[in-house]
Amino acid sequence: MQRRWLALGVVVLVAGCGGVDGAAVPQAAPDPWDPCSIPTEAIAATGLGTEVVEAGWGEGISMPDWERCLWQGPATDPWYYFGVLRSASISIEELRADPQVADAADINIEDRRAVRFHTTIAKPSERCELALSTTGGLLRLYVSVAGGSVPRQNPCDVVVRHAEDLLPNFPSKP
């Protein structure tokens, strides 16, 4: 019996110390996180319409640093659009330094640090954005009041609520 345990111990030690001969084989990079991969159930649970309004960018628009997915606000009263963008090449520091970013404020979305901001391209009462760093890159979430609609709530409150609801579906924090 003791021999069996000794033999097992030797096998474990040898296996643990063994090496691998040959050249390293490069591993394929994981596919980047796609904003449109957020489950429909999660989108519905946060109160958005479940149909993706737009994946990517419109015809003739090229934004190579950003992937994008856009949903319409509540089906019963679609007064805004909710968008999620992802970039693997832009950092949160670079975003903060963008001259179009205004009123940047550090906030927490549960245990994650984020930056809430407006842009100079829209009125603060009509659009609010939030950015957070993830292992999948920088996420930029926004709520934008639909053309011709009147805001029913502060867009910043709405984007924060959606971020909190959808956080489990985002890549982990770096």
TrEMBL record:
Keyword Signal: yes
Source organism phylogeny: Bacteria, Bacillati, Actinomycetota, Actinomycetes, Mycobacteriales
Assigned keywords, A-Z: Signal
Superkingdom of the source species: Bacteria
Gene source species: Rhodococcoides kyotonense
Name of this chain's protein: DUF3558 domain-containing protein
InterPro entries referenced in this protein's UniProt entry, alphabetically: DUF3558
N-terminal signal peptide: 1-23
